[in-house]
Each structure stands twice: as structure tokens, then as C-alpha cells.
């Protein structure tokens, strides 16, 4: 045909392991195009012959009909002379030296696979590892790119003839699905108890279910590591799991079979339903129904539950409902408190021995550990709290080219970030870098992702806190490799991370309201209640919460009664005047703390908003000692009366926000027996009003009306909802996190962009 033309097309984005080449094959066949398509280390390439009209229709369909798991970032089209192709083929992958591409996160079981799982006539009936191009493991099994089976932990499993036929059929939904397997050739499950193998295959599954019904704790190997599971409706089982795991009060996640079960126990909005059912299948924090039969010990002191649906076929089979089977299972990370989640069978046998009564094992390797993601829904969209399985390592798209750079994050809720091209690759959740095991996981993950995305950092960004293990790693590596090391102030990084997500102008300043628990300040104090006029290049600290001493340093974080004493001392209220603090009135400990404050002994100064929440909760008698981060603030928030309209006054001026009036009013209400629910509401209402008034003051002097809310305190949904609503009503444009957490889990992204601005990159 004389009107034939040729094109070469290069596509970047999430286009491997998501059924993209079969999609291209089908489009080409539909439009009558001839040529080929292949994966490379840099994306997907294709060459095509066809009429101009067919080529145009094809390129339009590439974007408009993209497979559900694919994400196209860029399409480059180059005109060619027709090559005279006689057919359309999917050709072998091509490795390219130094090239890279995004990697798909692990994806929950799809409807087609779940249907086959329950089909007695299907050869994969009740097979715990059923998967296809549209679902299954990705990130946790990939050793290297291009994403082909020999470079995954599925390499040891040689496909049987039937699986091989599906794998090579472009019209089959298992075409080049790298984890494809069946009972004849794939991974297998078994149950161990007392170092003995009790059962295999279906018997292992049913015996596990029986153990759970009996109230036992079972370690279950999943996608990115082990879970510890028990009956969530049996208080004794939950209490025992807490005792073994050294997890006193922090909430456990709960898995239920379907939405009908979740609806029975939780109040859900349409967007929460949508998020729970999404292919990422995160843990979603939702409101608990008062009549729920899930044990209160699952989430003590809270009015919410973290719920998720089964996201692997093994979970689906495990949660099958029977008359006497628990409707909900606790499904928490398989580790001792603060250790990394166990991934290796032998490691699990050793580390989880004191925790689990039995182990449901399998022999598919986990190359990189990956915890469950945790989200909330805010304003009909995702609000991430922990970004991991289902989301990592999909990148944040940058609006300009980035140099190869490593940002190592902070100490708590650590993630790190690698940049290259238009991508910022945020790691999966690593955890708190407070022990050797987690530090090893941090270093191993950096090495793996640098290899996976072919990043050789030209600089390293780090938090200014001199004692953070991540900071030490950055400085030691910088010296060893001769790389520039850029220290980034903690709260500046928080604000910058949110700016990146929204593609904000590099030179236009924003009002950054950065509230959290701890961040090392430029003056050596502990910051955390900050109003910054911020760009990527720098910031000006316009207002901050007034300083108070932190008696005992880190001890005060774990014992909020110390903070209550510090604030009482600061605002001039006598301890004897407060009945809620009666236990400390004649306490020898209280005397020591007051002397520490008076003489400035081991009492660093802090402007932390998180610590103000702790103090307020202690002054009300809600929580004097915490056993997990932000416990006092979380329980304080749960008490808020939504109908209360009064507020406590925060005063501000000369760059200082002074909560003295607020705390005096709070103490007076406690003395007069005002209900805790009203006190909690008045505190939140007053804080909201203060944020709005300070932002208005900054707008009047600096002419800025864009506000960014970042830092862990903004996980408080009462405060977030009220503040966003009131700021918007006052004409501000308000930006919150949508891709990375507001807490320290998102800080590495901000570090990376601030460092690049300093380098002029």
C-alpha cells in the first residue's frame, strides 16, 4: 500500500509487568498495524507500519485505553520509513546499560483470579499463589530489571507445559506474568508447629484455620513478610499477642473477608469503601461502630479501626467464612516491637518463636521486605499515613529533571528517596532506625533500589540531627565516596515534600505550617510548631510555638506528665491547684522534674506542637505515660465532642505563638469538672483558630495566600478537617499530602528537592 508510514514509539512510565505489551498487541491487531513491541530497561519500544489514520488512532488509544495498572508518563513518537513488516510480534526484552524504569508495586488479587480460585473446574482451584498480569507480587520478588522471570525469586520454579503455554500466548492474561504458576509447578504452603511440619497444601490451610478458631497466634508468610494473626473478636487472644509482641496499646490492623463484614463493624463513606477495595488494598483507618464485636483490645482508647481486605489468594482462602470461624483476624507485622518484619523462613523460625504458636510457611522467596500501607480518606482522596505495599516503589513524578541523588530521611518512620530524571523513587516503609536490624534493612534497601533504578548518587541529603543513624550513614558515605552532603532542616523538608507533590513553583514562597513532635532546629533546640515562609531554596521562620523545657529529654516524650509540669511551671499554675495531677502532687519524681526545669538540667528547649498535645492530654488526666508515639494525642483527639463550639485562646506576636491563655483556660475547666470531651474540643478549636489567624497575619505582611500543612500532627483528622475548612473559607489555597505521608515517612522527598535547589540542579 502506497500510503503506508512508519513510526518508532518509546514509552516511559509503569509499563512492565502490567499487561502492556499484550495491550499493544491487541491495539495493533485492531488497527491493522504491523511491526513489533518489546520491553527494555528504559521502558517499552515499538516500531510500526500502517496508514497515517491507523497510526493516529493507535497512539490516541495508547493513552485512552491504558491497562488499569499501567501509568504512562511520556510517549515519544519518531517518524520512519516503512520497514515492510509482515506481522506484529512481541519480541524479547532488551537490557540497556545504565537505563532504568519504574517498577510496579505488589498488586492485590484481581477478580478474574479470585473467580478461578473458587472454580472447582479450574486447574488452579484453591491454589494460594494464583496470579496473572493484572495482579500478584512485583516489587517484593524483583531482583533486577528488565522484569523477567530469571531476575525474580520465581526463577527456581520451572513452569509446567500448561503454564508455559499461557506465558507465551499474547492473548492470554498470563502472558509474561512473571510469577505465573500452578499447583503442579509453583510454590507450596505448609504448616509448622514445634519445629515439625504438621500439614501441607489444603490440610495446612484448614489446620491453620482450626488453630485460629482455638485462639492461637499463627505467623503467616505473605507478600512482603510475615504477619502475626489471631482472632480479633477474642479479647484473650489479642491480649496474649500484645504480651508476646511487647505492644501494650498501639492499634492492630484487622483483616476481614469482604465489604459486608467490614460494614458490620465500621462506619464507611463511599470514598472509604473505594479505598478499601482499591488494588493497593491498604489498611484504611475508619470509624468503628459502637456495637462492633471486635475486641476493644485491638485498638485501645480509640474510636477507629484499621481495616483491610485480603490481598493475596492465601488470605482469601484463610478468611473464608464458616459458621464458627472468626469474622475478623488481627493481621499485624511479624516482628518483635520495633524490629524489621521477618521475611525469611529460617529467620522467622528464630525471631518469631516467642510470638507464634505455629507458622504457615511457603517457599516463594521475598527479595525485599515490604509492610502494609496505611491510609485515611480526607476530602474524597487518599491521605497516606504509611506508604509501602501497593504504593512503593512507584515514583513521585517531578516537574523538572533531577540529578541522581540520595536523601536518607529521618529517624522515625524512615523512608529514603532516590531521584533520577523526572522521578523521585520513595522507598517502602523502613521503620524506626533505633536498632541494628532495622539499620541493616535500611542499608540493604538502599543498595537494592540504587541497583534497580541504576542510580549512582551525585550527592546525599540528610537531616540536621547529629545523632540520627540515617544522618551518620549519610556523612560516612559522603566522606567515603567523596560526595557532597547537604543537611536539610527537618521542618523545611516537611513543607518541601508537600510542595513537590503539588508541583509548586520553585521560586514562589508558601506559608508552611509544619507541626510535629521532634525536629532539630537551626538554633539547636527541638522544633515542631513552625510557621515557615518557604521555597525549595530556603525558608524564613516567621512564627513558632513558644519554647518550654523538655525535662529529661526523650524521657519527657514517653512521660507526658513531665510536659504538663513544664507548662504549669511556665504559665504559673501551681500543681496543687490541679486535681487531675493529684498522683504527682507529693511525688518525689515531680520534685526532681521541677528542679530540672528550674536549673535547666537535661531539659532542652522545644517548640513542639506534638509535645503541647501531650501536655494537654496529661493535664486532663487522659494519659500520663505513653507506650507508642503520639498515643496521648491520639486518645485526646478521640474524645473531641464535634458539637462543642467554644475554643481556648492562643496569643501570638513578635514571632511567638503563646499557648499560656489556652492552658490556663484548660486547667480552669479541669478544676470545674468540665467533661473531657468538651475540653478536647475547645483545645482543637482554639488551635484551629490560631493557625488561621497566624496565616492571615502572614498574608497581610508578605502577600502569600498558599498554605502547606505538613508534619505528623496533621494526621489529627479533627484538626486537619477544621483547619482546611476555615483556611479555605478565608480565601487561602490549602495543600495537604496525597502521595507521601505528612509524618516523617515523607520527609526524604522534601530533603531531595531542597538539596537539589542548594546544588542549583
Walk me through what this model shows.
- It contains 22 helices and 30 strands.
- The strands form 5 sheets. Strands 6, 7, 8, 9, 10, 11, 12, 13, 14, 15, 16 and 17 form a 12-stranded mixed sheet that branches. It has a 7-stranded mixed sheet with strand order 27-28-24-23-22-29-30, sandwiched between helices.
- A hairpin with a 2-residue loop joins β2 and β3.
- The protein is globular, with a radius of gyration of 27 Å.
In short:
The protein has 761 residues and is an alpha/beta fold. Among the domains are: 5-90, Alpha-Beta Plaits; 189-362, DHBP synthase (Alpha-Beta Complex); 549-704, ATPase, nucleotide binding domain (Nucleotidyltransferase, domain 5), CATH 3.30.420.40.
Give the tags.
Alpha-Beta Plaits; 22 helices; about 30% helix; Nucleotidyltransferase, domain 5; single chain; 7-stranded mixed beta sheet; DHBP synthase
Amino acid at each position: 500500500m502506497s500510503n503506508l508510514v512508519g513510526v518508532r514509539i518509546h514509552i516511559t512510565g509503569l509499563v512492565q509487568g502490567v499487561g502492556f505489551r499484550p495491550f499493544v498487541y491487541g491495539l495493533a491487531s485492531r488497527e491493522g498495524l504491523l511491526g513489533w513491541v518489546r520491553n527494555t530497561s528504559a521502558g517499552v519500544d515499538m516500531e510500526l507500519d500502517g496508514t497515517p489514520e491507523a497510526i493516529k488512532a493507535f497512539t490516541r488509544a495508547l493513552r485512552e485505553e491504558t491497562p488499569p495498572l499501567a501509568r504512562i508518563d511520556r510517549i515519544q513518537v519518531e517518524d520512519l520509513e516503512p520497514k515492510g513488516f509482515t506481522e506484529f510480534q512481541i519480541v524479547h526484552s532488551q537490557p540497556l546499560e545504565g537505563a532504568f524504569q519504574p517498577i510496579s508495586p505488589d498488586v492485590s488479587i484481581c477478580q478474574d483470579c479470585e473467580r478461578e480460585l473458587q472454580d472447582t473446574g479450574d486447574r488452579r482451584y484453591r491454589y494460594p499463589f494464583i496470579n496473572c498480569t493484572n495482579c500478584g507480587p512485583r516489587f517484593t520478588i524483583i531482583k533486577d530489571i528488565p522484569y523477567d522471570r530469571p531476575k525474580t525469586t520465581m526463577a527456581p520454579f520451572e513452569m509446567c507445559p500448561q503454564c508455559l503455554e499461557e506465558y507465551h500466548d499474547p492473548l492470554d492474561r498470563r502472558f509474561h506474568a512473571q510469577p505465573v504458576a500452578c499447583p503442579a509447578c509453583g510454590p507450596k504452603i505448609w504448616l509448622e508447629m514445634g519445629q515439625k511440619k504438621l500439614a501441607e497444601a489444603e490440610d495446612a490451610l484448614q489446620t491453620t484455620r482450626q488453630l485460629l478458631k482455638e485462639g492461637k497466634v499463627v505467623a503467616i508468610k505473605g507478600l512482603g513478610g510475615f504477619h502475626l494473626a489471631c482472632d480479633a473478636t477474642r479479647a484473650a487472644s489479642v491480649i496474649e499477642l500484645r504480651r508476646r509482641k511487647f505492644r501494650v496499646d498501639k492499634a492492630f490492623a484487622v483483616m476481614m473477608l469482604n465489604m459486608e463484614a467490614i460494614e458490620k463493624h465500621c462506619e464507611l463513606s463511599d470514598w472509604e469503601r473505594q479505598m478499601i477495595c482499591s488494588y493497593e488494598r491498604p489498611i484504611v483507618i475508619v470509624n468503628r461502630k459502637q456495637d462492633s464485636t471486635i475486641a476493644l483490645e485491638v485498638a485501645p482508647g480509640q474510636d477507629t479501626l484499621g481495616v483491610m481486605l485480603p490481598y493475596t489468594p492465601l488470605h482469601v482462602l484463610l478468611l473464608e467464612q464458616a459458621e464458627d470461624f472468626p469474622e475478623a483476624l488481627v493481621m499485624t507485622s511479624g516482628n518483635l516491637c520495633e524490629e524489621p518484619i521477618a521475611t525469611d523462613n529460617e529467620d522467622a523460625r528464630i525471631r518469631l518463636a516467642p510470638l507464634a504458636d505455629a507458622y504457615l510457611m511457603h517457599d516463594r522467596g521475598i527479595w525485599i521486605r515490604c509492610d502494609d500501607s496505611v491510609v485515611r480518606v480526607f476530602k474524597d482522596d487518599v491521605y497516606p499515613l504509611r506508604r509501602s505495599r501497593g504504593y512503593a516503589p512507584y515514583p513521585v513524578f517531578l516537574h523538572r529533571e533531577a540529578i541522581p541523588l540520595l536523601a536518607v530521611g529521618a529517624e522515625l518512620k524512615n523512608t529514603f528517596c532516590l531521584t533520577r530524571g523526572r522521578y523521585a523513587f520513595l522507598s517502602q516503609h523502613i521503620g524506626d532506625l533505633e536498632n541494628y536490624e532495622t539499620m541493616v534493612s535500611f542499608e540493604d534497601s538502599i543498595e537494592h533500589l540504587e541497583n534497580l533504578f541504576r542510580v549512582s548518587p551525585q550527592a546525599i541529603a540528610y537531616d540536621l540531627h547529629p545523632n540520627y543513624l540515617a544522618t551518620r550513614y549519610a556523612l560516612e558515605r559522603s566522606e567515603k565516596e567523596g560526595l557532597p552532603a547537604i543537611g536539610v532542616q527537618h521542618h523545611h523538608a516537611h513543607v518541601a515534600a508537600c510542595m513537590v507533590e503539588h508541583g509548586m513553583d520553585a521560586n514562589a514562597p508558601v506559608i508552611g505550617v509544619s507541626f510535629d513532635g521532634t525536629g532539630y532546629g537551626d538554633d539547636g533546640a527541638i522544633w515542631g510548631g513552625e510557621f515557615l515562609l518557604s521555597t525549595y531554596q530556603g525558608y524564613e521562620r516567621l512564627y513558632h510555638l513558644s519554647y518550654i523545657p523538655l525535662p529529661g529529654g526523650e524521657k519527657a516524650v514517653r512521660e507526658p506528665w513531665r510536659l504538663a509540669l513544664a507548662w504549669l511551671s511556665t504559665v504559673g499554675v501551681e500543681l496543687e491547684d490541679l486535681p487531675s495531677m493529684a498522683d504527682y502532687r507529693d511525688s518525689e519524681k515531680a520534685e526532681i522534674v521541677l528542679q530540672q526545669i528550674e536549673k535547666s538540667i537535661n531539659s532542652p528547649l522545644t517548640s513542639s506542637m506534638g509535645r503541647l498535645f501531650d501536655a494537654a492530654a496529661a493535664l486532663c488526666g487522659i494519659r500520663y505515660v505513653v507506650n507508642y508515639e503520639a498515643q496521648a494525642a491520639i486518645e485526646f483527639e478521640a474524645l473531641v465532642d464535634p458539637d462543642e463550639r467554644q475554643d481556648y485562646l492562643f496569643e501570638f506576636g513578635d514571632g511567638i505563638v503563646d499557648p499560656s491563655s489556652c492552658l490556663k483556660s484548660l486547667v480552669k475547666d479541669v478544676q470545674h469538672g468540665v467533661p473531657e470531651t468538651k475540653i478536647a474540643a475547645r483545645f482543637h478549636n482554639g488551635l484551629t483558630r490560631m493557625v488561621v489567624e497566624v496565616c492571615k497575619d502572614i498574608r497581610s505582611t508578605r502577600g502569600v495566600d498558599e498554605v502547606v500543612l505538613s508534619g505528623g500532627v496533621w494526621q489529627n483528622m479533627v484538626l486537619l478537617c477544621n483547619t482546611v475548612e476555615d483556611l479555605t473559607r478565608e480565601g487561602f489555597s490549602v495543600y495537604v499530602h496525597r502521595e507521601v505521608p505528612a509524618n516523617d515517612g515523607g520527609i526524604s522527598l522534601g530533603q531531595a528537592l531542597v538539596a537539589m535547589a542548594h546544588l542549583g540542579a
